[in-house]
Amino acid sequence: MSDAGKQEIGRVHVSETASYSSGIASRYATAVFELAKEAGKVSDVENDIDALAAALEASADFRELISSPIYSREQQQRGIVAISEKMGLGDIMTKTLGLMAEKRRLFVLPQLIGAVRHLIAQEKGEVTAEVRTAKKLTKTQEAKLAAALKTAVGKDVNIDATVDESLIGGLVVKVGSKMIDTSIAARLSNLQNAMKEVG
C-alpha cells in the first residue's frame, strides 16, 4: 500500500475515533442531565462538572488515569472512586464515573464535561462560546468577552476557553455555527493568499 493510502486510512481512523468518543460522551451526558433534573440536583452536578474540569486541568496523574491503557479496569475503578470521594462529588457523578470505569469509558470524560455543560446551558437559556487564544485569558478578559458576546447574541454566554499557541496572538470565537477569527495566524494566512493572487 502507498504512503498516501496509509495516511488516508489514518485520517479516517482519527475522525471516526473522535466521533465515537463524542457519541459515548453524549449518551452519558444526557443520562447525567436527566437524572440531575429528576432529582432537582442540576446545580450540584454543574459544580461537580466544574470541579472535575479543574482537576483534569491541574493533574497529569488524573489525565493519565482516565486515558492510559496501562491501568486495569479495577485500578481505574478504585482510582476514580477515591478521586470522587476526595473531591466530595455527589451521587450522580460518582455513580456515573464508576460506571464509566467499569465499561472502560473514562477516556471520554473531557467530552462528557463539555456535553453536560452544554445541556445545562441550554436549560438555562445560555449559549456557550468556544474560545481559542494564544495565551490564557485573565478573569477580567473573560468577563469582558462574555459581556461583548452577550450584546452580540442577546443571551448569557458561557466561555469555554482553551489555549492554542499556534494562533500566535488574537483569538478564535465560535458560537453555534458562527465563527470569528481574529488570530494573527489567520491574518498571516489571508496575507499569504492575497500575495499569491497578486503574484
Describe the structure.
With 199 residues, the chain is of the alpha+beta class. The chain folds into 2 domains: 1-124, Peroxidase, domain 1 (Orthogonal Bundle), CATH 1.10.520; 127-199, no CATH class. The protein is 68% helix and 12% strand. The chain has helices at residues 3-39, 42-58, 60-67, 73-87, 91-102, 109-124, 139-153, 184-198; strands at 127-133, 157-163, 171-175, 178-181. The chain has a 4-stranded mixed β-sheet with strand order 2-1-3-4. A hairpin with a 2-residue loop joins strand 3 and strand 4 (178-181). Helix 1 (3-39) runs antiparallel to helix 2, helix 2 (42-58) runs antiparallel to helix 6 and helix 4 runs antiparallel to helix 5 (91-102). The longest helix has 37 residues, at 3-39. The chain is globular, with a radius of gyration of 20 Å. The chain starts with a helix and ends with a helix.
Please write out the topology.
Blueprint: H1 3-39, H2 42-58, H3 60-67, H4 73-87, H5 91-102, H6 109-124, E1 127-133, H7 139-153, E2 157-163, E3 171-175, E4 178-181, H8 184-198
Parallel strand pairs: 1-2
Antiparallel strand pairs: 1-3, 3-4
